[in-house]
TrEMBL record:
Subcellular location: Cytoplasm
Role noted for this protein: Member of the two-component regulatory system NreB/NreC involved in the control of dissimilatory nitrate/nitrite reduction in response to oxygen. NreB functions as a direct oxygen sensor histidine kinase which is autophosphorylated, in the absence of oxygen, probably at the conserved histidine residue, and transfers its phosphate group probably to a conserved aspartate residue of NreC. NreB/NreC activates the expression of the nitrate (narGHJI) and nitrite (nir) reductase operons, as well as the putative nitrate transporter gene narT.
Domain Histidine kinase stretches: 347-434
Reported cofactor(s): [4Fe-4S] cluster
Catalytic activity: ATP + protein L-histidine = ADP + protein N-phospho-L-histidine
Protein name: Oxygen sensor histidine kinase NreB
EC main group: transferase
Keywords of the record: 4Fe-4S, ATP-binding, Cytoplasm, Iron, Iron-sulfur, Kinase, Membrane, Metal-binding, Nucleotide-binding, Phosphoprotein, Transferase, Transmembrane, Transmembrane helix, Two-component regulatory system
UniProt-listed CDD domains: HATPase_UhpB-NarQ-NarX-like
Originating organism: Almyronema epifaneia S1
One Pfam family matching this protein: HATPase_c
C-alpha cells in the first residue's frame, strides 16, 4: 500500500470525525441528562444484588476516565510513520486507553463503541487491509467481552459496565429479564458489527479515492515532464535542421559568391579606380555575411549548457545583455550543487526569456538578478524598475507563458508581480532535481 501517512494527520475530515466520536463518548459518560442516577444494572447470575457495594473513589475514577479519553483524542494529532512495530504499539495504546476509560466510568454500551471506532479509523490510515481487519477484529472482540462482563454483572474496578435499567424492567421476573437482556446484548453486538464494517468500507473508499487522485496527479506531472523533454528534443532537432539548411544553401552560396568576387578582382585592371573600391566593399560584405552565417549555424547547433555550469552559462547571458542593451545589471548567483540538466536548462531559458523581455519592453534603468540555494530548492528572482504592466491584461505573452510552463512542468512555482509604472518582478522556486510536486 502506498504510504499516505505523514507526521500530521493526513485527512482533516477523518480527524474531525474522530473528535465528534470522542465528544459523543464524553457526553455518554458524563451527561446528567442521560444518567441522572448511578447505574443499577441487573445482577448477573454469579453476582447477586446484595453483594454489590458502592463504587469507591468515584471522582478519581471519573477524572481518570476523562484523562484517558483526552489522551486518546490527543494521539490523533500525530500518526507514527517509522515502522510497523510503532504503528502496532500505537493501535494497542489506543485500545488500552479505550478499555481504561470504560473500566473507570462504566456505561460501556454507550461509551465503548465511539472510542473503538476512533481506534479502527486510525488503523485504516496506518495499515493495509490485513492490518485493518486485524485491528477491527480485536476491537469487535473487546466490545463482545465488555458486553459479556456487563451481562454477567462483573465489575473489574468496582464500576458497573452495563447501563442502568428502568424501574419497570426490574419488575420483570428474573428468568424473563435474562432473556430480554440476552436479546438486547445480541442485537447490540450485531449492530456494532454492522457499524464497524460500514466504517471500514467507508474509510477504505476514502483512502482509495485519495490514492487514485494522488497517482493521477503524479502521472499528470510526469506527463508534463515528458512533454517538456520532447519539446526540448524537438526544438533541438529543428534548430539542427535549420542550421544544416543554412549551412548547405546560404553558406555555400556565399562561399561561391566570394570565389567569384575573388576571380573578378584578379581579372580587373589595376587602374579601375572606383570600380575596384566597390568590388572591395562587396568582397568584405560577403566575408562578413559568411562569418555571420557560420556564427548563426554554430549557435543553433550549440547547447547553451554543453560543457558549462549553470552559473557560467548565466554569466555569458548577462555579459551579452549588458553589451547589447547597455542596461546596468547586478547579479548574485550562488549554487553549491549543480542541479539536474532539465532544471538547469529550464532556469537558463527562463533567465534568457526574462532578459529578452526586459530589453524589448521594460525601458528599465537597472536590473537585479539573484539565484541561490534554499534547502532542496533553487530560487531565481529577476527584478527591474521599468514601466511594468498589468498581468491580468497580458494574456497573449508567449514568453511569460513559456516561463510558467517550464516551471510547473518540473514541479516548481512561478510568481509574477508587476503593475504599470512600478517595474516587474519574477520569482521562480524550482526543485533541484525536478521532483514531483
Amino acid at each position: 500500500m502506498q504510504q499516505l501517512v505523514r507526521d500530521r494527520h493526513p485527512f482533516r475530515l477523518l480527524l474531525y470525525l474522530e473528535w465528534i466520536l470522542l465528544s459523543i463518548a464524553v457526553l455518554a459518560a458524563f451527561s446528567p441528562l442521560l444518567f441522572a442516577h448511578p447505574p443499577k444494572p441487573f445482577p448477573g447470575p454469579f453476582h447477586p444484588a446484595s453483594k454489590h457495594a458502592p463504587v469507591p473513589f468515584a471522582i478519581p475514577l471519573q477524572v481518570g476516565a476523562l484523562l484517558s479519553m483526552a489522551g486518546l483524542g490527543a494521539m490523533g494529532l500525530r500518526l507514527p510513520t517509522q515502522s510497523r512495530v510503532q504503528q502496532g504499539l500505537y493501535s494497542a495504546a489506543g485500545l488500552g486507553l479505550s478499555w481504561l476509560a470504560v473500566l473507570m466510568i462504566g456505561h460501556g454500551q454507550s461509551v465503548f463503541p465511539p472510542l473503538l471506532l476512533i481506534v479502527v479509523i486510525r488503523a485504516c490510515l496506518l495499515f493495509p487491509w490485513g492490518g485493518r481487519l486485524l485491528v477491527a477484529g480485536i476491537a469487535y472482540g473487546s466490545f463482545i467481552l465488555m458486553l459479556l462482563l456487563a451481562f454477567l454483572g462483573i465489575r473489574p474496578l468496582g464500576v458497573p459496565l452495563g447501563r442502568s435499567l428502568p424501574a419497570i424492567l426490574r419488575r420483570i421476573p428474573p428468568e424473563s429479564l435474562h432473556n430480554v437482556l440476552l436479546g438486547l446484548t445480541l442485537n447490540t453486538a450485531l449492530l456494532f458489527g454492522l457499524v464497524l464494517g460500514f466504517v471500514l468500507l467507508l474509510v477504505g473508499a476514502v483512502l482509495a479515492e485519495t490514492r487514485s487522485r494522488q497517482q493521477l496527479s503524479e502521472a499528470n506531472h510526469r506527463l508534463r515532464q515528458y512533454a517538456l523533454l520532447i519539446e526540448n528534443q524537438a526544438t533541438l532537432q529543428e534548430r539542427n535542421r535549420i542550421a544544416r539548411e543554412i549551412h548547405d544553401s546560404v553558406g555555400h552560396s556565399l562561399v561561391a559568391q566570394s570565389i567569384q568576387l575573388e576571380n573578378v578582382a584578379m581579372l580587373l585592371p589595376a587602374n579601375s579606380g572606383s570600380l575596384a573600391d566597390h568590388l572591395h566593399k562587396a568582397r568584405e560584405l560577403g566575408k562578413e555575411a559568411l562569418q555571420h552565417v557560420r556564427h548563426s549555424v554554430a549557435t543553433l547547433r550549440h547547447h547553451p549548457l554543453q560543457g558549462k555550469t549553470l552559473k557560467a552559462a548565466i554569466a555569458v547571458l548577462l555579459q551579452d545583455f549588458q553589451h547589447n542593451c547597455a542596461i546596468p545589471i547586478t547579479a548574485e548567483v550562488q549554487i553549491e550543487t549543480e542541479p539536474s540538466v532539465e532544471v538547469a536548462t529550464a532556469l537558463y531559458r527562463i533567465v534568457q526569456e526574462a532578459l529578452t523581455n526586459i530589453s524589448k519592453h521594460s525601458e528599465a534603468d537597472w536590473v537585479n538578478l539573484s539565484l541561490g540555494d534554499r534547502r532542496s530548492d533553487l530560487t531565481l528572482q529577476i527584478e527591474d524598475n521599468g514601466q511594468g504592466f498589468d498581468p491580468s491584461q497580458n494574456t497573449t505573452g508567449f514568453g511569460l507563458q513559456s516561463m510558467r510552463e517550464r516551471t510547473t512542468a518540473l514541479g516548481g512555482s512561478f510568481y509574477l508581480h508587476s503593475q504599470p509604472g512600478h517595474g516587474c518582478q519574477i520569482q521562480v522556486v524550482m526543485p533541484r532535481q525536478g521532483a514531483v510536486a
